[in-house]
From TrEMBL:
Coiled-coil features, chain-numbered ranges: none
Organism: Lysobacter niastensis
Annotated protein name in UniProt: RNA polymerase sigma-70 factor (ECF subfamily)
Annotated RNA polymerase sigma factor 70 region 4 type domain residues: 137-189
Family matches, as SUPFAM superfamilies: Sigma2 domain of RNA polymerase sigma factors, Sigma3 and sigma4 domains of RNA polymerase sigma factors
Pfam families, alphabetized: Sigma70_r2 (PF04542), Sigma70_r4_2 (PF08281)
Matching PANTHER family: RNA POLYMERASE ECF-TYPE SIGMA FACTO, RNA POLYMERASE SIGMA-70 FACTOR ECF SUBFAMILY
Amino acid sequence: MLTAMTAWLPDTTSAEPGAEDRALVQDAVAGDVTAFERLYRRHAGRVHGVISRLVGRHGDRADDLTQEAFVRAWQQLPSFRHESAFSTWLHRLAVNTALMELRSRRSRPQEESDELLEFHEVGGSGSDSHHSPALKMDLGRAVASLPPRARAVLVLFDIEGWTHEEISASLGMAVGSSKAQLHRARQLLRTRLGDTP
């Protein structure tokens, strides 16, 4: 698992992460693999976090997609123009990697029902789940239990700060559908977290 692999890695975040990232990117583009490893160590946790929030209860798949995002970053690094921070560029690349996974799942609808089944099996839908701290679902698990498109819109809008226009373009849906999916996701979260009146 990625988190186990990176747990021993030192946090190399400096007071000026953008300047250090720029220097590391330049060294990596010049062929310095160690510089790219340092970029990986600096950003792997956040990249894995956003991918796992987007793809849901597929922990091993999130690990694979994180690795895939970094492979793509290595391949595309020479085209990085420093018009934005490296972390922003990498983050968008990671989100696009996860979105490609979600699009590919549309042809495999069984996976969505499997996620909902897992949600019910852990006690998320029980009427007493919001009363017992031991049974109360945490936010991360609740987000992971959402249907994939609703989860993607919620994560991109509420967590990643994307606009509905950006989401609609990335997910291939109308802006109105993005807004509707966000509303649906928020309502499902309220219900699953026991916050409904």
